[in-house]
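For reproducibility, we list the full input for the decanoyl-CoA complex.
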Amino acid sequence: SKPFFQEPPKLPPNTFRTDKLLQKFLLSVLPKNIQKDIFGHLDYVGGQVASTLLDWAADCEANEPFHVPFDAWGKRVDRLVLSQSWSKLEGFAAENGLVSIAYERKFGCYSRVYQMALLYLFAPSSAFVSCPLAMTDGVARALEIHGDKDLKERVLPHLISRNPGEFWTAGQWMTEKTGGSDVSQTSTVAIPDIAEESEFGATHSLYGVKWFASAIDSNIALTLAKTQGKEDLDTRELSLFYVEFRKNKNDCLQKIEILRLKDKLGTRALPTAEIKLNGTPARLIGREGRGVSNISVVLNITRIYNAVCCVAHMRRSLDLLEDYLKKRRSFGNVIFHHPLQYRVLRNLEITYQRSFLLTFFAAFLLGKEENGEASGEECMLLRMITPLVKLYTAKQVIVVSSEVVESFGGAGYIENTGIPRLLRDAQVYAIWEGTTNIMCLDILRVFAKYSSSRSVLLRNLSENGSKLSLGETWKKKYNELEYLLESQDITSSSMQSKGRRIAFLMAFLWSEILLAKYHM
Ligand code: MFK
Ligand code: FAD
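The corresponding predicted structure, in tokenized form, follows.
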């Protein structure tokens, strides 16, 4: 008899055309003229990510970045070797406006939805170029808000350029050995003493070690340090600094040593380094001592990127699985049609839909806020939904990816099917940009800081819940959330221990509303 070979999973030729939820959402939210303007572009990107970009991403995964500390003669060079395809992916992102669309603001408050829809298509074929894009966008926003005019004029045109030759990417160096969640123990110092004039108006020299620095091929970064005066050597609060360390991608680093690249569980195409700042010239951004608050502008953007990338990862995993299960047979039928497996797939789809709708609702609110069109209540909802979507989607992408690996059977565990990477790469989203617990505590921080925030949330949920006539389960969970939020001391130990319950109730209640609203 003929030997048996299983047909491998295949992506559809255009991931925009087959994405019913994305299309339905865009058709519901965007005005007709904007739909007309952008659908052609989304369709183009949907085709590219399922063809050319897949090859580039595979090349990046097959040729992982490496670090060459010294040249043949012992001179320190800290050369970074990256696959050619990494820069092709960055170039594609620049040309297609993956960052710039949010700043050109041609589509007003809808610009963010458009940009995030592109990111959603792009991310699963990007080998984590999505990571520098997230940080570039966050840094652009922080400079827009806190940067001096001359610095904005110098840097922003690069960060939002559509020309790959001009496009700069940015890093975000916060984590030190002592802690990434709690950065208050940061030991990097900033001395207001610069050896020579810099083109970007450096005000300080930085000394310290940053323990995680992703996309170390970037051009610039924002980082945190404690300032030291010459006479007054008291350590003060953290301040935010701008560092410009590479004009062109192949330049050697000045006064920064790459100690080594991290050997990571996933995100292996992304160069993440430990670095030593050796008197690195840096420019103070915003007020001294306001570093944590100022860098949170970056965090609130990258956390929405994180959520979009999680949802995109779920969609890609489910697309591959559905195709596979429609071909693979057991017990006389294709596995897709076995009732139990079908139920598993349906549940995963609903998890994905909840995640998608919450995330794109956050993106919509972000666009409104940036265009000055959000009401006070909407700004508050955005502030709390940002950590919520970050934590919720990052947890769900692990659940979905794990189930997808299992649904591929043994093939799901074999490296060269490409499936195990889905699970390895899924784990990172819950760690970087703030862990799940830290996101729960951030939600409690909002409740503690803004006295009306709890009533704004509860009113928004209850009004929508009644309008959409949501059932008994919804009401029971709403009552539980209302009860939990009655506490006087929202940041007490007892409230902290309920942080996850509160967050997951919020995610359930909000996503039920969105599912009903979009008739899913
Ligand atoms: C693929 C897509 C994603 C790509 C990822 C890129 C690669 C990965 C890069 C990284 O992982 S970068 C490192 C990310 N690190 C974190 O996310 C840090 C996690 N820790 C936190 O988020 C802590 O909450 C934080 C360090 C920000 C603050 O902790 P503290 O020291 O307890 O802060 P505190 O004293 O409560 O807040 C200081 C100020 O900041 C307060 O303002 P005021 O001084 O005016 O009162 C806070 O309200 C404000 N703040 C804190 N978080 C905020 C915020 N404001 C707005 N939004 C926030 N999220
Ligand atoms: P810790 O802060 O030690 O936390 C350990 C555990 O304790 C966590 O699960 C946390 O949730 C929990 N925890 C801590 N405090 C509390 C609390 N108060 N209540 C309850 N639970 C708590 N950082 C950068 O700055 N720039 C980068 O470019 C960067 N890239 C990264 C790339 C990768 C692939 C990874 C994995 C990490 C990267 N990071 C980067 C670091 C990342 O942001 C940190 O690892 C993360 O913020 C957690 O910090 P930590 O590792 O010090 O863990």
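Residues 56 and 85 are 5 Å apart (CA to CA). The longest strand covers residues 272-285. Both points were considered when choosing residues for closer inspection.
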